[in-house]
Structure formats: C-alpha cells, structure tokens
Amino acid sequence: MSRFGSDPRRRRGLVRGVGVAVLALATCGAVTGPVAAAPKPPDKQPTAIGSGGAVATVDPDATQAGIDVLRRGGNAVDAAVAAAAALGVTEPYSAGIGGGGFFVYYDARTRRVHTIDGRETAPAAMQSDTFAPGGVPIPFPEAVTSGLSVGVPGTPATWERALRLWGSLSLSQALRPAITVAQRGFVVDATFRQQTADNAARFADFPASRALFLPGGQPPAVGTVLRNPDLAATYRLIGQRGTGVFYDGEIGTDLVKTVHAPPVDPAATRVVRPGLMTEADLAAYRAIDRAPTRVGYRGLDVFGMAPPSSGGSTVGEALNILERSDLGSLDRTQALHRYLEASGLAFADRNRYVGDPDRVNVPLAQLLSEGFAGERACLISPTSTVARPIAPGSPDGAHAPCPPAATAARDAGREGLSTTHLTTADRWGNVVAYTLTIEQTGGSGITVPGRGFLLNNELTDFNFTDTQGGNDPNLPAPGKRPRSSMAPTIVLRHGKPILAVGSPGGATIITTVLQTLVNRLDLGMTLPEAIAAARASERNGAATQAEPAFPTAGLAALGHTFAPVAEIGAVTGVEALGHGRWLAAAEPVRRGGGSAKVVRP
Ligand code: GLU
Predict the structure, then answer these.
(1) What is the pLDDT of residues 146-175, one digit of tens each?
(2) Who has the most CB within 10 Å: 70, 270, 476, 486?
C-alpha cells in the first residue's frame, strides 16, 4: 500500500543595489571585483510551502528568476525557461545554451504529460570509431577537452519550443531576468570557486575561458562579483532574433569555428582535437517532441523521459520490479535491499537495450511491461544478492518463469555532479521537471570567444567501443543522440500532479530519482526527508556506491558490496499539498544546498 499522501509531514546571489558600483569596475569582459557594498544574496531556503506556484533549483538567483516570472503572471513553462537561463549564468559549468537537456511538462488543462528531447546530437561526420580510431579508445580526458566531444546543442531549441507550445512569454521576455543577472553579476561562493579551481588548468589553456572564469589568472575569490556581459549580449541577440541566430546565424558561425579549431593558447601543451560539427549540422538540429514513459506504481502514474534518455525506462522498470514487494511493510534493510537489486537489474537492461530510438531499436514497451518486470523480479532473493554483473533479461514479450541468473560484462556508466535539475509549478496546476547539462562540470572547457558560454562534451556519453558483445545500442553514429541518464519525473494521481523530481549526477541520476521516489512513496518520508536521506547507487557495477551515512551493515550481510562516495546527486522537487498549495524542496546540504521558493509563502 502506498503511504503517499499520509501526513506530508548558499550558494551565491545577484548583487542588489551594487550594480552601478560593479559596472564602474567593469570595463570589458568578465570582471570580478570586491563587492562595493556588503553583498546581500537572495535568501536561500531548501524548503518552502505556500501557494501561487513554486520553484526549486540549485541556485537562489535562478529560483528567484522563476518566482518573479510566476509573480508577474507567467506560467510554469515560462518560469522554467527563465530559471534555466539564469542557471546558464550562475551555474555555467553545469548548464547553458552550449548544452542540452530534457523537459517534462504536465499540462493542467489537458491533464497530459508532454516531453521535449533537447539532447545534443552527433555531427553527420561522426562514425562508430570516432572515439576509438583503429579500435584504440582516445584517453578519456583528451576526449572530454576537445572539439570532438561537442554535440550540437539542444538547449536554445528546447526553450523556444517549450515557450511556443505552452508558454505565455516570448523568448526575449523569458531571458530578461537572466540578462540582468549576467549584466550585474553574482556573488561567487565556495562551490563556484571550487568548481573553477577544479577546472583551472584546462580553462587556462583556452584564452576565452581564462578571461571569463579566471580573472587575473586565478579562480575568483569567494565574495567577489562575477559578470558575464558577453552572455548577456548573446541572450539579448537570441531574444531579439530567435534561435535562428544560434542555429543558422552569427552565433552558430562562431560556435562551429570554435569546435573546428578550438582556440587554444599557443603556449599550451594540451592536445585539443578538433571537432566534426558543421554549420549544416547546427542548422539541422531539432528539439523533438517525444511521448513520455509511463508506469503505474501503487495506484499512481509515474511519467518520465523516454530514450535517448535511459531515465524514464530505467526508473520505470525498477519501479515495476519494486511494486511486487510491499516495501512499506518490510524492515528498512529488506526495503533497501530490494531497491538496490531492482536498480541493478534495471541497469543491466538499460546498458544492453537503451540508445537513441531514432538509430537503434529500443524495446521500450517491453522494458516497461509488467510481464518483463515479473520475470526480472523473480531473480530477487530476500537472503542474498543476484550475482554481479547481472546479465540483461529478454524483453521479447514471452515472459518465462524465473530464468536462471546469468552474468554479463559490466558497464557501470559514468557519474558526476555536473548537470542541474529544476522543478516549477504554477497557480493553474501546470508542472515542469527539467534537467539540463553540458555533461562534465565545465563541459569541454571551451568557451565560444565573445559569446560567454561553454561548449558541452556530451558526445563522451557514447560508449567509445562496444560494451555489449556486438549489440551496443550506444555507439556513436552520424546524427545520433548519446544515451542519457537524465530522469526528470512527474507523478500523477487520478490525472493530477502530486510530485515532480529530478537530479544531476550522470548515471547516478537514475538511482537518486528512484530512491527519492521510494523514500517518499513507500518509506513514509516527507519530500524534504526523502531528498536529504543518505543515498546509495547500484548500477550493476563492481560495487554499490554509498554515501557515508547510508546504512550498509545489514545490506553487506546480504552480500552487497559498497564503495564510499562523499555525495550522490542534488535533487529538486515540488509536491502538491492540495487546495493550490505547493511544497518546494531542494537539497539542504549537498552541492552547497539548493533554493526553494513559493510565490505566496
Ligand atoms: N551527460 C549526463 C547524462 O546525460 C549527465 C551528466 C551528469 O549529470 O554528470 O546522463
């Protein structure tokens, strides 16, 4: 039985009132300076309850941008685009117009869930061996910081399409708050400084990245103001002329030039491979409307992102497997054991079967079928773990009784803490769950000179060589979208949204979203508790990653092996409390904590 509904029991800020002083310090490019007056970043709370709409992101300026839009009568889609654009300024290493993402939208009028696939796309010249010439994979760090890994960005097209289909603002209006943040600057905090320091060596090799993010050759100090007038101008241009100026105009020309001949400092010793993207690739880009994934879970409907993301299919398959156990009635060790086992099984199938559905045949309906879940669930024992690595099942529609467990090659997938997730809701009951990224923290490390944004390295999400014995669904190919793990998720009850969540974290996104749902829907936690709880991520790899506070002892006795990690994921979400009230929630601690607000507290 679901317990859902029973007892729902600093980063940095836009400098207010110092814009003139800061402008006086700035003569060109990105300038940091001591804050002229004591900076007063917007309030940052990880939880808020109230009415009129809600926004949760990792950053207070972005949350505020969304709230301001809602307050002025905008809807959840307008607020999501405004917040995402602001994140492009204040979280430039995680998201921006140089990247892509997946936008999931619940429309209150029609009671339907829609999604936009804004995933980056491989250029037409990309081949299956591009990342492994002669069968030898390029060293991963070399692939990351290269033109080769830059996919055609999908984020500008996603914003334009979402606003056109469901928004009430123009793109120019939705970009306005972000332009203000970029122009006036934001106060650097410890997380931003650390992320810059982690990237300093490669940023230093690209003069445009160096000028923007390493003022005076160093990561900006905590408490200084970082401005990005180039990005403000880029946003302005896109607002005035539409995304054509990006995909088929002067910004695109600069972008392709940068990918073709990455502007490396001549003094740098770094090998920076040129990319294959052409202006024709850019002009051909389309954000794609896709049917969401849907699974029933304990009387609820869980909607997610279909391939090329593996988010919806893997979370969905795991939920289908978990639905066969009454998790709420089990002791905590048994409940978590089943969560880890379901996740390991679903990952085995994800790795074998999920890729770009426009290039490979993904048996999505079968992966999400009850019959297949039954076949997979019967491998789970209460007293031991399925031997790792787990072999993929056969989603062929013929559901055999419990097959013997076989083992297969490992393909754990990469994890990180780049990417960002935001969630919005409005007074009409529309909801958006939107995850966007430039892949690694700092993407390719390459800034388009004069344009103020970093390029993604999303094409490193392809497998460089075949991991599935001749059946790898995620090898590079011309025009193909690399498999993602992004899992923006909206849960409905009787056609109305009750919960929306998502997270960054590479392949751990899937387990973070799954665990948050289980915590909330089965284990009696409130949404803030579900988000704050210690996490573990089981992906059919060598060991289950676990945060220090995750209760491993009883699980180890069942055969689980754990590898410690400091932090997994950074969730934001909203929950409908009824009568137009919303609970907005973000991380209290991880990644410096997030920011949740409502229009009327
Ligand atoms: N590129 C990853 C994906 O699409 C997200 C990156 C991250 O969160 O670290 O799955």
Answers:
(1) 999 999 999 999 999 999 999 999 999 999
(2) 486
